[in-house]
Structures are given as structure tokens and as C-alpha cells.
Design brief:
α15 links the parallel β13 and β14. It is built from 16 helices and 14 strands. The protein is of the alpha+beta class. A five-stranded mixed β-sheet has the order 10-11-12-13-14, with helices on both faces. The chain has a four-stranded mixed β-sheet with strand order 1-8-9-7. A three-stranded antiparallel β-sheet has the order 2-4-3. InterPro entries: AlkZ-like.
Amino acid sequence: MRPRLELSVRHARALHLAAQGLLAPPRRRATPEDVRDAVARMELLQLDTIHVVARSPYLVLFSRLGAYEPRWLDELLASGRLFECWAHEACLAPIEEYALHRRFLETRDHWFVNRARRLFREEREAMGALLAHVAEHGPVKAADFKGPEPARSGWWGWKKEKTLLEAWFALGELMVARRVNFHRVYDLRRRVYPAADALELPSASAARRAMVERAVRALGVTQPRWIHDYFRTRPRLGMKELAPLLEDGTLLPVEVEGWAVPGVVHRDHLAAAERIAAGERAATHTTLLSPFDPVVWDRERVAALFGFDYRLECYLPAPKRRYGYYVLPILRRGALVGRLDAKAHRAEGVFEVKALQLEPSVRPSDALARDVAGAIAACARWHGTPEVRLRETVPAAARARLAAALRARRRTG
């Protein structure tokens, strides 16, 4: 099958960023609807509790939308327009995708869901009692149960009620009604989403096809072997498995410079791909990315697309960390040019840049410093920590340029 499209690596990056909403800066101030649309565009918004800077889901949205109100995301969950599910990991997704995710949940091989199934077999009576408690008394938080904290276990040292609540959530009988200080509030599925049980679920094969299609659309351009990671489906795919989607035109083959195998593009992105290849659209956005941003989910993919070797190091012992605890990739005009080890000191209003390290191939320049300083300053203001304190840079020569650009930003507001 002869590919219709040919893309340079630079153009492939741009198409990926366009699909993710990261090609160009936002043109206007964000609204609550923009938050919902950004989640829908990505298909998933991964959740994580670490908040050295903003918690990841809020930072992922900031990278795309600029300054917005984080409470809008919480309100979308509480109003039922988004829902929590297990997909790539724990994620938010548009409520319109509930039936797809529920069918997928019933058929998938996922480590957390498998644990929940095992717990149900081993603790059927206790799980039944907890579900009956929620049915009678209404929404609950894990903190509502005053039992003793157990020794650390495979369920992260959770007390028993938390473990049972999470198991029911993974199995779909409980949903997250809302969050309070980022803590889940659980309730029965029929109360959180009354329409849920009347929905017609897709077949297992249709659900799998839909997951593949949505992953490719969210990625913009991808090798077949990277598709499975987006929703954590198994196994890895090849062009052979994509044949039905290629034959009906849902997916289009593409040759990307330097790739040993053909890639694929969703037909919804054909026009964008052609405009990018023709030089009519280019990456102009500079921002900081969350360590849990979809752009960097797959280490192999980000290395192939951006030449960027990225590993989340917060789960490593401190002596084994190369770059820092919670390091933010720096996206500049279509390239990942470095990484930032930062901490937001909210009480003092200080955004501390512990270290900023440029990629070895990136040469410090005044233009680079202006772009990166702008991204840091914008993120710091959105955090409510407008004073930026710059510590170390690699190379050291980049520090003077970056410090000067940050001072200029302060003067101009």
C-alpha cells in the first residue's frame, strides 16, 4: 500500500502537537467549555496527586489553554460532563465516551482492574457490605471511615475501606461524584450518571476498534506500535492489525523521514497534515509540560518524534535521579529543548527554578531565553507564585540570558 503522505520529522512533530492542542498559543482567554473541549481533544486527562507545582491534570490544561480557573475542571466532573475511569491510568474522560469505556473495562486486561477483580473474589462479603452502606447513606469519602491505618501493602497502604471503594470504582459499580480537595467522593453509578444502565454498550470488537481510532486521532501521527499505550490496550499493533481501518479510509498511511516503518494518520487530520507539509502551519507555542502530559507518556515515542529521552524520576531514590524529582519538559516552537526542575512555594508567592537544563543540541540564545522566560513567567503567575527565583542552569552560560529575560518580563508585566 503506497502512502499518500510524506512528512519530515519536524512536520510529524507539528501534526502531533496540532492534534494535542499545542501547536500555537491560545488566541483568547479560556472558558469552562474550552477545558471540556481540551479533554475531549486528548480523549483522556491523566490524574496524579503530586503537587510540587500544580497537580498534573491542571498543568496539562494550562499548557494548552494558558491561564484558566482550575475549579472549572472540578466543576465539569461534579456536573457530570466529565467522569473518572481507568484508561491510560486513572483519567478523566468526556461523559459521552462512558459506554465505550465501560465496555472496555469489562473486557480489558489492566493491572488495577485485575486487582479489583481478585479482591472481589476474596472479599465478597466486605465489598457487598460497603456497597450497601453507600446505597443507604449516600456519597462517601475514604476519610469518612475511621478505621486504623494499616501497614503499607500492595494497595499503597490504604485502609481497608479505601481499598474496597477503589475496587468498586475500578469495577464500575461506584463512580466519582466529585472531588473535595482532590479527594474522591464516591457514589453509586446510578446516582452519579442515571443514564448509565440504559445505555447500549458497543461490542467488545467495536470498542477495541474505537479505542484504536481515538488513540490515532489524539496522537495526530503515530507508528502502529505506539497506539496501544494511549489507552493501555494490548497487544502492540502492526499495520496488519490496522488493515480494516486502512481499507475503509479511517486511517491513512504516511511515510515519516527516518522511520523504518510507515506511520498512520487519522482521516480527520488529513487537511492539517497537508497544510503542515506545505509550510502553511508551523509550531509557535512555548510552554512547560507536565510529566504526565500525553506528549511524554511513551518514552519510545517521544524519543523518536522529538529526540528527547524523558523519564519520570520522582519514583526513583534521590541518588539515582539525574534531573530532579518532578521535572517539566520545556516545549519551544515544536521542539523539546530542555527540562525544568521547579517548585511552587505558594505561601511565599515564589516559583523556584531549582535547575533548568537545556538539551545538548540546543544553543543558548536571546530568542530562546525570551521564549522560555515567557513560559516560566506565565506559569508562575497562573500558580499565584509570580516571583521567579532562578538557581542553576546547564549550560551555566544560559543563566545570564535567562535571568535578563525574566527581569525584562517583570518590568513589562
